[in-house]
Amino acid sequence: MVERAARLLRAISAYRSDGASTTELANTTGLARPTAHRLLVSLAEQGLADRDAKTGRWLLGPELYLLGAVATNRYDITDQARDIVDQISRLTGESAFLSAHRGDETVCILCREGSFPLRSHVLHEGKRFPLGVASAGLAILSHLPGREIDDYLSHTDLAAEWGEVHSEDQVRQRIATTLADGYAVNPGLIVEGSWGMGAAVFDRAGRPAWALSLTGVETRFREPRRTELGTLLLEHAHRLSVRLKSQ
């Protein structure tokens, strides 16, 4: 019950400010529509979900705001990271992001649009991807302990949803390349022509808890600029890791 309710809340968050219909949420979570509706009503009774009286679409509820405000002191690093994300975007002209590691996913929690007029719109605040798909998730997955990587890939079929370019063998090849380079590269695997690069940010325990990333059009990520962008990402990811460990 709790797991299904959590899936619904995550699904609602993916629709951002417009909300989602019961049918859309049922399809997204794989729940039967009556089950999804029953759970949504229960969540609304607790203030965790809210239904727009005019459109009938579901949104996150006010109680989540209050709970989130309490959790902010422990988990929210956006204030510490904002100047770094801004600087990455300003120096490169690309859109820059901060994503957080949550379970088997990453969720974008901060973004800054770049000045270059052509942009990739794959990533935005609140957007979730499985580990190993986008560059932020690949950077984080690559720096997890080997046993955790093996466990994740053994129970996750990325290829089923994201195509054969996300087969276990290919993901493992990209993990090896990421570890060798220090930064991850997504060469248009989600949307053709839309590239991304990411570098892991580590918590006090030395675990990859966040990632800085850049996205843009393919022509902006060719060598030698790609190596320059990777080096810049690593420098700023290290800077943020050191800052977080000192607080």
From TrEMBL:
Residues 1-62 form the HTH iclR-type domain. It holds the Pfam family IclR_C. SUPFAM superfamilies: GAF domain-like, Winged helix' DNA-binding domain. Keywords: DNA-binding, Transcription, Transcription regulation. It comes from the Bacteria. GO terms for molecular function: DNA binding; DNA-binding transcription factor activity. PROSITE patterns: HTH_ICLR, ICLR_ED. Residues 63-246 form the IclR-ED domain. One of its GO terms (biological process) is negative regulation of DNA-templated transcription. PANTHER family: HELIX-TURN-HELIX TRANSCRIPTIONAL REGULATOR, ICLR FAMILY, HTH-TYPE TRANSCRIPTIONAL REGULATOR RV1719. This is HTH-type transcriptional regulator KipR. It comes from Nocardia macrotermitis.
